[in-house]
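I am still learning, so would you mind making up any protein sequence you like and the tokens describing how it folds?
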Amino acid sequence: MIHLLYDIILLLALPVIVPYHLYRARKRGRPAALSERFGFIAAEPHGMDGTIWVHAVSVGETIAVKPLLKALRNTFPGRRIVLSNGTETGRAIAATLREVDRCIYFPFDYPWAADRLLQTIAPALIIVVETEIWPAFLRRARRRGIPVMLANGRISDRSFAGYLRLAWFFRRVLPDFDAFCMQSAEDGRRIAAIGAPADRVRVAGNLKYDIPPVTVTAERQREVRARYGIPTGVPVLVAGSTHKGEDEPVITAYRRLLDEGRELFLVLVPRHPERAPEVAALLAQAGLSCRLRSGLGDHPEPAGRNGVLLVDTVGELMACYAASDLVFVGGSLVPTGGHNILEPASLGRPLLFGPHMTNFREIASLALAADAGRQVSDAGGLAVAWGALLDDGELCRAMGDRGRRIVEENSGAVRRHLQAATELLAAPAERRP
């Protein structure tokens, strides 16, 4: 009855869902791909072992699952890997991954759409990244005897209360998962509290820690800066994954540093590239000239000092971090939950971020406790923190080294996730119709 009620409600929402997706796709300048979202895709090739279908809803989840995708490719070379996404930006990142054989959009959660895709792909295993719970899809996979695993699972403070209120619903949905690989013991406790069978829950760690630490040599940094037309001989500040409401304090902090007489260069990377015109207008109001990443050729001339590179493309954030001297990670000055500070940490960069890190609370706490990062609350705090680090190269190096150690000491999640996937592939759980 619960599933029938859910299907009816979603069917009634169809006149809203389709126009919304058309609007969003048009706004972001990307195809709506409605046929894929209703389960119409070309047939999969025959003659290989069963496919592993990985679902990562957006950019953060797609980046997080990259180490696991690589491990799956190396461990199961005879299996195809299909990666689905829910957002256009996530799909753009997915298309760049060499480990993936096919990229598709995840279907709307209608039984016929899920059935059509499941029949076409015929996966041997489905891996859902973080907390993506789609009842109709899970139910259809269960009926087909396809094991489903939750990877890198987490239940945030904000969402836990809501899940608890709907525990009567999730107690009927969560048993359609065969394994829950949660980031922490607390995440495991929470998923069990809202209805996951306790014997299927394991603490596997956070995949985001499994980023191979990389030493960016001076030569490598020069190469990256040349690719982006970044001038040499000046410190480079990168503000990554900024959201609406964060660009203004970043620009203000940069402006203050320039007004102190410093020679610098700023790389500004909005989380959503379609916001670039809006951000460019803010830069112009502050009297700052900028160049768009999309307008650079293969061999751009170096920009002037005290300028700005506005990155209006996807998939280049790590390269921008490699070009940097100092980094601020966005999504944290506004209440969106923060973004992954381990990416710049893996490159040995000192970390700056705002107070809103609920999605990365454990990682942020480790960074602060180890003095690998500093938390700022506004433009003034960011300007002071950037200035202090610019004036103390030894402090920068020490903070960067401590951040790299955090990444190294907390790795191992890929191995534990891979073990769970291997077990499900070797002996799929008995599925109830």
